[in-house]
Amino acid sequence: MGHGDLMSQAEDVADQFLRVTKHYLPHVARLCLVSTFLEDGVRMWFQWAEQSEYIDSTWSCGRFLANIFVLLNLLGQLGGCVLILSRNFVQNACFALFGVIALQTVAYSILWDLKFLMRNLSLGGGLLLLLAECRGEARSVFAGVPSLGNQSSPKHLLQLGGRVLLVLMFMTLLHFDLSLFSILQNLVGTALMVLVAVGFKTKLAALTLVAWLLCINFTFNAFWSVPSYKPMHDFLKYDFFQTTSVIGGLLLVVALGYFISTPERRKKSQLCHVSLLKRYYSRVVTE
User: Which residues of 80-105 are buried (b: 16+ CB within 10 A; e: fewer)?
Assistant: First the structure.
């Protein structure tokens, strides 16, 4: 069996998986994508006093304004996630989460920390994908079956911005140390993300990357195995939910066909033209 046959079989498996999961995969993708906001909103509730004290000591704004800050973060994130997951007022919920990101970027001085700034921008990319999804245009049934609409429409511009920031979201997961496994992890993940970004073997590459990130996440970011009083617990928990958001973004673009490879687009265009010609000739014969 040749390399081409293996790739064809692997793509068939990916197509079959998407057909079986097409009804609930977008819901799983959204849940993964907003998991970071859910976790942070819950943390605001359980660490209310610590968060309020930190904001008061950093900005000298008084306990009242510090409590208002924590309340806005809690309600904005949990409320926005509930609306997105229930598919109600999705645009308003996304804008509320954009506001939370901006508020936290300023309040926690994230502007001066490049790594955390990139992670906040990448979360914005996930929200752009959610905004693109809720646009009232036609959507694909399977990944790789796009509508042939105006490529400069707001939906496509949102998708483009989401794709760029999704790549940025993945880059924040890279580990820049010289251990053999970290180098292998970075090489494999980057190669798969490049394939997804350029639209080559998109569904297969994205699903492979999802499987790879799931294994990495549950193996190396197992925060539940570290006592909660240790600082490493919070670091691993942050990385776990950040990786889960990347997985959600990948699942969303695959489930809804946001990344379209050139051969797939050409094939779809040809099928569309053939269908239009058949309709035209059938109408002429009928008349």
Answer: bbebbbeeeebeebbebbbebbeebb
